[in-house]
Amino acid sequence: MKLLATVTLGLSLGLGLFSAAAHADQLADIKSRGSLTCGTLGTSQPFSYQDNATRTVVGYDVDMCKLVADKLGVKVEYKLLSVAARVPELNEGRVDILAANLGYSPDRAEQIAFSHAYYVSPQKLLVRKDSGLDTIESVNGRRIAATKGSSSEREIKRIMDKSQVLGYTDSSAAYLALQQKKVDAQFASELVLVRLVLQSPPNAPVTVIDKSVFDESWGLGMRKSEPAFIAAVNKILDEAEASGEAAKLFDKWFGDATPYKLKRSFKIAPIAG
């Protein structure tokens, strides 16, 4: 009986050690294999999109992932995801980190960990110039397009409670619905909407309503069970802010030398939630 108890205890300890080894610390695992797998959209210029000349994925989100990988001393690999697949792909371990227009919300923060905010996005409404709609109040009660599964879709349903919100696969599909008059407005980040204004044909002009519906902090997404990795990523972001490297990345993609000509009105900092 004593021998059986000893064998059982030995097996239990052995299985416990095996389990601990099988679930290695993510930061150590990334460094051991020499690569960081970053989930990104690939469809959201200038955050993450395919460069036609090089056929590679480029953008602000892409560079943020490369920044993290470089500071960890590993190479970066990108996996293109749909908006709806971002959180499941992360939590199922198919990517290490998300840089994918990931807006903070209390609900989403229960599912994943957010890094410090690396971008703050005014969320606005896009309308056809001939619509006669020029305020947030005038749009409430109308049909509004948003990207399906995004925080924008969830928040616009909450804020514009008189409106019918229709979900589309991405911002391009939502914009097409606006031009086809299937919806009266499109809701997205200011930058996405500015890009659509620049691309709109002269015979179908669109305009962004000046006032933002709300401002949304974006963070890199990580699994909540990996405190060492979360701390390492936040340290990298904080150091990039202090050195000016983060500001240079912003200017590269959004500054005066770009079509957007945006001014950086935020600093990388913890998200208040």
UniProtKB/TrEMBL annotation:
Membrane recorded as keyword: no
Signal peptide: 1-24
Pfam families the UniProt entry points to: SBP_bac_3 (PF00497)
GO BP term (any one): amino acid transport
Keyword Nucleotide-binding in annotation: no
Family annotation (SMART domains): PBPb
Domain Solute-binding protein family 3/N-terminal: 35-257
Keywords: Signal, Transport
GO cellular component terms listed in the entry, alphabetical order: extracellular region; outer membrane-bounded periplasmic space
Family affiliation: Belongs to the bacterial solute-binding protein 3 family.
UniProt-recorded name of the protein: Substrate-binding protein
Taxon lineage: Bacteria, Pseudomonadati, Pseudomonadota, Betaproteobacteria, Burkholderiales
